[in-house]
Amino acid sequence: MTTSDFALKAGKIWFNGTLIDSKDAQVHVLTHAMHYGSAVFEGERAYNGKIFKVEAHNDRLFRSADILDIEIPYDKDTLLKARQEVLDANNLTNCYLRPLVWRGDESMGIYARNNKTHVMVAAWDWPSYFSPEKVNAGLSLKTSKWRRPAPNTAPIQAKAAGGYMIGTLAKHESYDAGFDDALVLDYKDRVAESSGANIFMIKDGQAFTPPTECSLNGITRLTMIDILRDMGLTVTEKFWDYDELIQADEIMLTGTAAEIQAVRLIDDHVIPVGETFKKARQIYSDMVRS
């Protein structure tokens, strides 16, 4: 068995309570999470040695596990300390962190209460999700054929591994067509999100973002709402359709991995990269590094 170069980048991983080498962090192919998607996770960033809004991420990890009927075998404080252990062990100050909770290989089948719960925390260098050129110019989005499901058909508010397959398919579709990312609509053809980030629209000096009926209520989304309000903008949570979106004065994406990104193109519709984005992005950058 070999370990990929990417996996080796993680160095030391906190694995069920112990720091181990990345190459030794292995699971069996009959792991329940691999077959049935029974795993939840967080994506977090550390800036200057401090994880931004780590308590909020930790709370959401436990909330996601509860939604998927998974009992985490550690308390919240232990997992907060685990993150710091990983940063210290890998000598990282600016990086991405991935806590993951999953069901093991004790039994195979839909019923999973006999399966042990495992927990790990990994971290690695990841300066920016998009290149500096893309950040400055703005991203291009292609509308995906895939749709976000109705809230009574999937555990929308759990940051669950299986829920991201729609994002993967949408991302592949957009990349293959030469775009940076995907625009994903919901089951009613309303604007929902990108492949893995929340979306904001600026129109006539006001900000709008879809309610999180069909998408995760991102921690960066909540941060952006506060930033825009502090900038003096009214922020309204409302649904809108594709035709409204392409008439926007500005469009932005928000997420822990993506941070704050402007959108310059939706399919063949040009969107300005404006001053609201530039100011909000600078405020966010100062905030996470303060």
DSSP strand content: 25-35%
Number of helices: 9
CATH hierarchy class name of the largest domain: Alpha Beta
Determine the fraction of residues in helical runs and give it as a percent range: 25-40%
Mean pLDDT: 95
The N- and C-terminal alpha carbons lie at a distance of 43 Å
Quaternary structure annotation: single chain
User: CATH superfamily of the largest domain, called what?
Assistant: D-amino Acid Aminotransferase, subunit A, domain 2
Element order: H for helix, E for strand: HEEHEEEHHEEHEHEEEEHEHEEEH
Uncertain stretches of 5 or more adjacent residues? none
Q: Which structural class should the secondary elements be placed in? A: alpha+beta
Largest sheet: 9 strands, mixed
Structural domain tally: 2
Question: The CATH topology of the largest domain is what?
Answer: D-amino Acid Aminotransferase, Chain A, domain 2
What is Rg? 19 Å
At CATH level 2, the architecture of the largest domain is Alpha-Beta Barrel
The general outline is globular
Number of strands: 16
